[in-house]
């Protein structure tokens, strides 16, 4: 298969699109940053891409709720095009604000007859939190996490708490292997029992940091893999042997490898 083509969706207030383009580029993909209004004008543009990535940032100023306006725009103007893209066996990745968008559009398969299973809302402490976190990947299902187990990545969010509708919704996500990434100290077992701050930075249910759909091809995560594509981006790179390729880059490489 030729080099996969990645569309990084731009929108007013997105601010991680260039880093995300760089990460996919390092991973060997062909990448274009395309404004959401261009896609709305010409939804057939999507046919030329195998990966759609909604990057991090503050789309539409986080008005109403982070990711809500862009999600509503996608639902109102591109519902069929985006669903067709997803159902064509392609990949979708939402990073931080992009995760908020994917979850709020329902593209993550995060709804049942009772409505949405989960949403992303304000961190328990009510503040923006930007720092490195320790994570455990569940690589059973998620294409982007193949071969990845424990990983450190930075977070930078105010509305990163995964709030689950009820215990049935939580069971659907946990038992369905949908919680693809959890906050977990490197030296401790992974658990769904909510860990306290700072390990769980936002109060997310089941310590969840990322969710995937039932196919494993649609993935949203709050941490920023595009900010760890070189070992010198790690805060301890001068003191510790940091494995290469940098752990964040491996997510993007997995996306490219999916098509080879
Ligand atoms: N880095 C980001 O994408 C931030 C997402 C969103 N603006 C928030 O603060 O929660």
UniProtKB/TrEMBL annotation:
Keyword ATP-binding: yes
EC number from the UniProt entry: 6.3.5.3
InterPro entries xrefs: Class_I_gatase-like, PRibForGlyAmidine_synth_PurQ
One GO CC annotation: cytoplasm
UniProt keyword annotation of ATP-binding present: yes
Stored Gene3D superfamilies: 3.40.50.880
Single GO molecular function: ATP binding
Superkingdom in the source lineage: Bacteria
Keyword vocabulary terms for this entry: ATP-binding, Cytoplasm, Glutamine amidotransferase, Hydrolase, Ligase, Nucleotide-binding, Purine biosynthesis
Top-rank EC class of the record's enzyme: ligase
GO biological process, one term: 'de novo' IMP biosynthetic process
Name of the protein: Phosphoribosylformylglycinamidine synthase
Source organism of this protein record: Botrimarina hoheduenensis
Lineage per the UniProt record: Bacteria, Pseudomonadati, Planctomycetota, Planctomycetia, Pirellulales
Protein's gene: purQ
């Amino acid at each position: 298969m030729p080099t996969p083509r990645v569309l990084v969706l731009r929108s007013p207030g997105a601010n991680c699109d260039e880093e995300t383009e760089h990460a996919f580029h390092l991973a060997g993909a062909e990448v274009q940053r395309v404004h959401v209004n261009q896609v709305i004008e010409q939804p057939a543009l999507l046919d030329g891409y195998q990966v759609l990535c909604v990057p991090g940032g503050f789309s539409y100023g986080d008005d109403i709720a982070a990711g809500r306006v862009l999600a509503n725009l996608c639902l109102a103007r591109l519902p069929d095009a985006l669903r067709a893209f997803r159902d064509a066996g392609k990949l979708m990745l939402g990073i931080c604000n992009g995760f908020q968008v994917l979850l709020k559009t329902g593209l993550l398969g995060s709804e049942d007859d009772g409505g949405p299973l989960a949403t992303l809302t304000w961190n328990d402490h009510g503040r923006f939190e930007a720092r490195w976190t320790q994570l455990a990947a569940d690589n059973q299902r998620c294409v982007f996490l193949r071969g990845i187990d424990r990983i450190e990545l930075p977070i930078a969010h105010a509305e990163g708490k995964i709030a689950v509708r009820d215990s049935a919704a939580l069971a659907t996500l946990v038992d369905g292997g949908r919680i693809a990434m959890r906050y977990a100290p490197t030296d401790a077992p992974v658990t769904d029992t909510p860990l306290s701050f700072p390990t769980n930075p936002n109060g997310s249910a089941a310590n969840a940091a990322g969710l995937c759909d039932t196919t494993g091809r649609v993935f949203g995560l709050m941490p920023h893999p595009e900010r760890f594509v070189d070992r010198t981006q790690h805060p301890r790179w001068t003191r510790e042997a940091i494995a290469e390729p940098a752990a964040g880059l491996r997510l993007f490489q997995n996306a490219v490898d999916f098509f080879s």
